[in-house]
Amino acid sequence: MRNQVSDNNSSQQPDNSWIIELSKTIFLSIFLALGIRTFVAEARWIPSGSMEPTLHGTPNQWEADKIIVDKVKYKFATPQRGDIVVFSPTEELKKEQYHDAFIKRIVGLPGEKVELRNGKVYINSKPLAENKYLSPSQVTVIDVCTSGQQPPYLAKPETIPDNSYLVLGDNRNSSYDGRCWGVVPRNNIIGRAIVRFWPLNNIGTIDR
User: Fold this and answer.
1) Which single residue of 32, 37, 106, 111 has CA 20 to 30 Å from 70?
2) What's the average model confidence in pLDDT over 112-120?
3) Which residues contact 82 (CB under 8 A, 6 or more apart)?
4) Could you report the per-residue pLDDT of 14-52, keeping only the tens digit for each?
5) Distance (Å, whole) CA 180 – CA 92
6) Helix, strand, or coil (residue 184)
7) What is the DSSP letter of 190?
8) Is 104 noted as a catalytic residue in this protein?
9) How do residues 66-91 score in pLDDT, each as one tens digit?
10) Catalytic position from the list 50, 71, 164, 175
11) What dotted CATH number matches 37-205?
């Protein structure tokens, strides 16, 4: 009888176990989502046209390309030339009141001598092959550097410091990039752009 009474009492009380389980599931989902965004990958959209035509950017995020940024790769490997990277503003950019992340392509590696000649990028005195992502009409000059530090960083040949990278936009005629303000320390690099998931008719990997 004692067991029977106990069973009858419990049956009269509301069963809240599903609420507890739901709460656990929601908490775990939020924890995993935040953890993935913080340590593994995150979604971003392209706010400007500095990476055209590789990535379409516009202040209207619903019309801009949206990408996935891999935040793990560079914990085990070094950034490579040609990688499209997202990075937090450098100290020089912070002086100009930039706070949002940038996206550019790595063109110069630590220890390399970089200079601009006749509208082209030279690495260690050799022209850099950029025909894969630049149209023949694109030129790389410092005329776009009308703000920020003067003279611009690449107004003369420069040797890239250790653990730093020179990054440029693919849209050289309309990109505020390393030509103007200098290099990006490796610690500023958030991750590498690997996949475009919007618009739906242009989903795919982002080639180097």
Assistant:
1) 111
2) 96
3) 105, 106, 107, 208
4) 556 656 655 545 444 444 444 444 456 788 889 999 999
5) 10
6) strand
7) E
8) yes
9) 999 999 999 999 999 999 999 999 99
10) 50
11) 2.10.109.10
